[in-house]
UniProtKB/TrEMBL annotation:
<dbReference type="InterPro" id="IPR016163">
    <property type="entry name" value="Ald_DH_C"/>
</dbReference>
<dbReference type="InterPro" id="IPR016161">
    <property type="entry name" value="Ald_DH/histidinol_DH"/>
</dbReference>
<dbReference type="Pfam" id="PF00171">
    <property type="entry name" value="Aldedh"/>
</dbReference>
<dbReference type="InterPro" id="IPR016162">
    <property type="entry name" value="Ald_DH_N"/>
</dbReference>
<dbReference type="InterPro" id="IPR050740">
    <property type="entry name" value="Aldehyde_DH_Superfamily"/>
</dbReference>
<dbReference type="InterPro" id="IPR015590">
    <property type="entry name" value="Aldehyde_DH_dom"/>
</dbReference>
<comment type="similarity">
    <text>Belongs to the aldehyde dehydrogenase family.</text>
</comment>
<dbReference type="GO" id="GO:0047533">
    <property type="term" value="F:2,5-dioxovalerate dehydrogenase (NADP+) activity"/>
</dbReference>
<protein>
    <submittedName>
        <fullName>Alpha-ketoglutaric semialdehyde dehydrogenase 1</fullName>
        <ecNumber>1.2.1.26</ecNumber>
    </submittedName>
</protein>
<feature type="domain" description="Aldehyde dehydrogenase">
    <location>
        <begin position="14"/>
        <end position="472"/>
    </location>
</feature>
<keyword id="KW-0560">Oxidoreductase</keyword>
Amino acid sequence: MYQDLALYIDGEFVKGGDRREQDVINPATQEVLGKLPHATTADLDRALAAAQRAFTTWKATSPLERSKILRRVAELTRERAKDIGRNITLDQGKPLAEAVAEVMVCAEHAEWHAEEGRRIYGRVIPPRQPNVRQIVVREPIGVCAAFTPWNFPFNQAIRKIVAALGAGCTLILKGPEDSPSAVVALAQLFHDAGLPPGVLNIVWGVPSEVSTYLIESPIVRKISFTGSVPVGKQLAALAGAHMKRVTMELGGHSPVLVFDDADIEPAAEMLARFKIRNAGQVCVSPTRFYVQEKAYDKFLARFTEVMGSIKVGDGLQDSTQMGPLAHERRIASMEQFLDDASHRGGKVVAGGGRIGDRGYFFAPTVITDLPDDAKLMVDEPFGPVAPVVRFKDAEDALRRANSLPFGLASYVFTNSLKTATLVSNGLEAGMVNINHFGMALSETPFGGIKDSGIGSEGGTETFDGYLVTKFITQV
């Protein structure tokens, strides 16, 4: 049975009344799964008031007590992962194994923040006079507002929740209306773990209207957003107008540099399978494949072979390796990339179109012979479409990899320590993966530079956006 959908405000699940509702669609079947209630202005005001009231007591709650709740959330997450994952597959589309894995790994995020929240330390600064005492303390910033995307609905929401709550802040979170089940499940997890009313509130609605209302409220002091670059810039500008702190994890267009001396076929297979994860709807998905000239033919042959062999279907079927795209509009976007590639002389060597007429299925696609100014080389596809082009040397690869305004993730495949050092130093990206994929762990920072964002989630940096620094000097 699909998740019962509701708002979560001041410790209560709320729905019905005169609230507007929207259909939640299964992207594999296009069937309606449920009705999602939108928050009214009164609902938003109630959430703001609840979060403000709860902050008074939550910030003063012992970090050890906050830690106990986050640990209990981790336990409940593991217990309910299968059911939560199934609902993610229903409303988001990814294969069931991927959905359950998304939920399971998030238990680690809750546990890690439970421990790290107990270690938010200040410091003592030696004074210039013996009768002076100087200390620095770090305090929670206050009520926060978070906005999370549809591609990893559980993962992206819990990372913001545990960082805010672990720091002693309270939170109002607007999750993705297209794939809401995971966020409602999260509200239930925290509710059942004993979180006090008002510390976490979940609302839904028209994204631009909800975000504007919350960001403009004087109650909200910090904004966290994961999503597209254009929307992120709009929200950051609005937050800046009200002098509010932001954490922004925005889009990328991740370059892959495969050098002649790499283990070519294993790299090609690894990259193909990582590319089709969540149907390519991943902000750190490899999206621009630059392969050195001598390795190009061997890499392309294996990469194309694996991409062409992927089993596409309903995520609930055991044999499925890649599910549907999340929305009808993602299909249209893929078709635009292919149309532009065709006009630019690109050659489709695998896939190349929609599959069937029911559900939002699109074939894993490989395109070659594209110029650097083709749409697919400059705009993030956010889908299972991969351009593969040649490069000459490290200087050529770095110049092209760094040519865009994005800087989230990047990938390098080489067996040369010299090349790995040169390229990892030269890449303009917040995360550099060499010969493997090692991001998004609870203990490592996740974030980008340039247009790809501000700040990091995870790692010791995780609380930076949720804490203020206070200097106290006393005679």
